[in-house]
Each structure stands twice: as structure tokens, then as C-alpha cells.
């Protein structure tokens, strides 16, 4: 910070939880992990997304708007 104080990380969710969680109009859960183009999914993130997919939800990693459109379009 400009005043010299230090910042502190504050977690608002559990480990592995995706950046975006929502519900589609058909009732399915939507989970989207947002990454930079070079970003890698951590094992705990994949452990969260895979069961969502297995149960019929939409769970994916988005590195660009094209990824979002591919999964939701």
C-alpha cells in the first residue's frame, strides 16, 4: 500500500473452489476457474471440477472469452 502498510490475503472460500460458481437456467451448476493463458490448474482445483462434470454440471477452465463461449455457447 502507498502508506507503507502491508496487505494480507483473506480467503473467502475453501481450497479448490472455482473462481465463479453459479446456476444455469436449466438448473445445472456452473463452475469456472479463471486462469491466465499460461496458468496451471492446481490438483485441488481439478478435484473440485471433476465431480461437478461427473454429475452433469458445467465445469471448465477459462483462459479467454473463447473458452467461455465454447462451454456456454
Describe the structure.
α1 (43-54) links the parallel β2 and β3 (58-62). With 73 residues, the protein is α+β, with helices and mostly antiparallel strands. Helix content is 27%, strand content 21%. The protein has a three-stranded mixed beta sheet with strand order 1-2-3, with helices on both faces. The chain has two helices and three strands. The longest helix has 12 residues, at 43-54. The chain is globular, with a radius of gyration of 15 Å.
What gap, in angstroms, lies between the N and C termini? 41 Å
What best-fitting shape do the alpha-carbon axes yield? globular
Order of helices and strands: EEHEH
Helix content: 25-40%
Major beta-sheet overview: 3 strands, mixed
Adjacency order of strands in the biggest sheet: 1-2-3
| Annotation, overall tally of beta strands | 3
Instruction: Please state the structural category.
Output: alpha+beta
Whole-angstrom Rg: 15 Å
Average pLDDT, all residues: 91
* Total count of helical runs of at least 4 residues: 2
Query: How much beta, percentage-wise?
Result: 15-25%
Features:
alpha+beta, globular, three-stranded mixed β-sheet, 73 residues
SSE layout:
Layout: E1 20-23, E2 29-34, H1 43-54, E3 58-62, H2 65-72
Parallel strand pairs: 2-3
Antiparallel strand pairs: 1-2
What's the gist of this structure?
The protein has 73 residues and is of the alpha+beta class. The chain has helices at residues 43-54, 65-72, and strands at residues 20-23, 29-34, 58-62.
Amino acid at each position: 500500500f502507498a502508506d507503507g502498510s502491508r496487505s494480507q490475503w483473506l480467503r473467502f472460500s475453501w481450497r479448490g473452489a472455482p473462481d465463479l460458481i453459479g446456476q444455469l437456467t436449466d438448473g445445472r451448476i456452473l463452475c469456472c476457474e479463471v486462469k491466465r493463458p499460461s496458468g496451471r490448474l492446481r490438483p485441488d482445483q481439478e478435484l473440485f471440477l471433476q465431480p461437478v462434470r461427473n454429475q452433469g454440471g458445467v465445469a471448465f477452465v477459462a483462459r479467454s472469452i473463447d473458452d467461455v463461449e465454447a462451454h456456454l455457447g
